[in-house]
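We give this protein:

***
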Amino acid sequence: MKEKLGFVIPLVVVAILVALPVGGASAAPPPVQGVRMTPIGTPTWKPADLHMFSAPIGTADSGYAEFGETALAILPPPNHIFNSTLLVGPGAPHQPPYDTEMGDGIAAMGLHHGVQFGSGEFSSGMGVWLTWMTVPAPGSTGSSPDFDSGPIIPNSLFPIRVEGASLHNGQMFDQWLAFFDVPALDELDPPFLVDGSSHFPVYIADNADFGPPGANLRGSYVFRIQITDATGNGWQVEAHFAVGP
């Protein structure tokens, strides 16, 4: 796993740029426009509740501890709690759907959500984030930390590999934006004795610290990410944004 800022947190419970906001009573911001998602093969799961925003990630001096603090704040207790292996781990069991939890947390924190960011939002301890919740689509039926029987991503599809890079004005910016595996819940220490995951979040972030030293930050960026399960099925995600003055 890349130690910097690409984290996956399997939970019981890491964008297709959608052109229309999600309706309903949720206070969550609409999905970011500027992300495209393309299937690889025939996956039975998908990224949902995709969002791009600016938030603290920390600095080398802090060991980027603020990244973990932000991730935990977006998915807070009681439904999600700190786990020494997962960072954000299973909390109180809760039923699906899980496709607004990420957006609800971002909205509650008042984070700048969109595709246009200032240079101060991409440096000095701040970063641009791409997040999503991975959910069964349709998945299979089994147990998870959230329920005894329901839709899951079965343990047999793990590990799920997340890897990708970021480009700036068409040139490589951060070749190690993401490179990690999502483990099966029954392979953790201690394991969750369940058939699979009802959902799990992915957090990815980047900023000036991880690009060429002294680079002019202004311009267009893209996160290019590939997510594949143990059978080779998955998704390609492209998330576009711009950094200005």
User: Anything to note?
Assistant: The CA atoms of residues 17 and 35 lie 4 Å apart. DSSP finds two helices and 16 strands in the chain. The chain has one domain: 7-244. The mean pLDDT is 87.
